[in-house]
Amino acid sequence: MAPYQPGPAQAAAGERFTVLDPATGEAFDEAPDQRAQELDAAVRRAHEAWRSWRSDPAARAAALLASADAVEAAEPELAPLLTREQGKPLAESSAEIARTAARLRWFAASAPEPRTIQDGRAVHSEIRWRSLGLVAAIVPWNFPLQLASAKFAPALAAGNTVVLKPSPFTPLATRLLGSVLSAALPEGVLTVLTGRDPLGALLASHPGIRHVTFTGSVPTGRAVAAGAASGLARITLELGGNDAAILLDDVDVERIADRLFWAAFRNCGQVCMAVKRVYAPARLHGRVVEALAARAKAVVVGAGLDPGTELGPLNNAAQLARVERYTARALADGAKAAAGGHRLDRPGWFHAPTVLTDVPPDSPVVTEEQFGPVLPVLPYGSVDEAVDAANATRFGLGGSVWGTDLDRAEAVAGRLECGTAWINHHAELSLAQPFAGVKESGVGVAGGPWGLYGNLSPFVVHRALEDRS
């Protein structure tokens, strides 16, 4: 990715692109296809706004609290729009908006704490904290508002200003969110830019950016990091996962089946920290497959705006094709579909909730992040074998262990090579905790005070305790 260079080759202002409804596959609205000129203008406004925004912590906290109130008040407009462009059930869209408001409130109450260094010298040394400047937030399509707030809430609380770019698959609710927040935030503090390539590349490599935070695929994350490196900007990258769930031999299959199913299939499996592989003891493997398959066959699949829908479509045609390709490859290699195994014959990007058994362990549906409603269940002979299999991946975002003996389950969880391990549940996060991956799942830390300090730079002041003149 080359450093940003403005030039006449960029598309003229005023161009637009269509947004498709994943439940129908048809266009239902448009968004501005913004390019270099708009980006440059947004960066200038953000730098101007930063001068005053960084200097008044009390005003920032009040603005973030007002922002949370505004988001909640706009839920009746935001939720249907989010469902329309993303596909998820309306209740899940409402929950995403509630989470966005909650994160704004959490960071409104957060402030960096000065720290005194005592090392025996006759010097008073104090660590203070300064904002970085302008933060670029690049957000994917699976949780557009929630992941946007995970980036801009700590950045704004730290005194930075933000330029936010949503995915071109889901630009509309984010644009509306930006409009809602504009009533609570000073001009230029948060700017939403929408557009197709190369807008993301231009934003990541813009010389005015001091911190680039990105959620998405590993290949795009590498490109973002290369672009940010051109200006030596700080990076925070969350690059997905291939989370394993290990079921121990004392697990109560029926008791945990619902939790396990939704840990894998929520948001149609389009969750970075969803369960994407299940390892079950050989003697329980059949029962686990049967329990998960029964739920997959019973779940109501439909348009997210339909009141009875429990599982919506995949977000876009390319993602549906990826899921189809991985599933077909597994079936061709000898796997069996205990449920699903195919796309649904209807308009839109629907795939049947799928539970696979007899899957070769080297199948891409096991080794890669399928990011869809497909779950392989693999048998194991010993716990050591299960842990080795769970760790045999280039990803390391999350993992979970399920069983009745909680101490034993926690000991096994401690052997997983990932950033977060859960016991008897999965993919549940507190606003106060760090969120980070190992291996190719990411760089840097988000969430909690770690997310706040990741948007700050230390400033050390030394003062002699005696006259040295």
What does this protein look like?
- The chain is an alpha/beta fold.
- Helices cover 38% and strands 20% of the residues.
- The chain has helices spanning 36-53, 57-73, 75-86, 90-108, 144-157, 172-182, 199-204, 218-229, 253-265, 285-298, 317-332, 364-367, 383-391, 406-413, 448-453, and strands at residues 16-21, 26-32, 115-117, 123-131, 134-138, 161-165, 190-192, 211-215, 234-238, 243-247, 275-281, 336-339, 354-357, 374-380, 398-402, 420-423, 442-443, 456-464.
- The strands form four sheets. It has a seven-stranded mixed β-sheet with strand order 12-13-14-11-10-15-16, with helices on both faces.
- Helix 8 (218-229) links the parallel strand 8 and strand 9.
- Helix 2 packs antiparallel against helix 4.
- The chain is globular and about 75 Å long.
- The active site is at 238.
- It holds the Pfam family Aldedh.
- InterPro entries: Ald_DH/histidinol_DH, Ald_DH_C, Ald_DH_CS_CYS, Ald_DH_CS_GLU, Ald_DH_N, Aldehyde_DH_dom, LUC3-like.
- Belongs to the aldehyde dehydrogenase family.
